Amino acid sequence: MEVLLVEIPSQIVKFIQLALKQIDNEVITLTTTIDGLLDTLYFQTYKLVFFLEQLYPKFMPIIAKLPIEKRREMAFVLFVERGKSLDPLQAFIKHVDAVINIEEVSALGQYIESILEHHQQLYKGFYQVYQAIVIR
Question: Which of 24, 40, 92, 103 has the most crowded CB, counting CB atoms within 10 A?
Fold first, then answer.
């Protein structure tokens, strides 16, 4: 599984790596800056993309430039300073797959599988329709 960390501080990276190792021993974690984000995402697909709330104003316009089929392959996880982790309404409002309260980052291992499962279920129909259209 390939994971992208966008300007994530090292103290949070430790928790992300620990959480990912609980579900997949072959995790490739890459980092990028907000300035290199579009190129990074355009030429590579990541299973999970983590970013901080402070980057949100710059992050979302970049994501909007991606083709929709590329965007739907990735689960975007936003670390927030306020709010409840895995709050579906907050994730919907922010146009991401999941929000995690930064104070709960040590519990990330408990959330990763449900984030991935939710993402797969949410876009299952999209993938089926997209594959049917592309095959024709």
Answer: 40
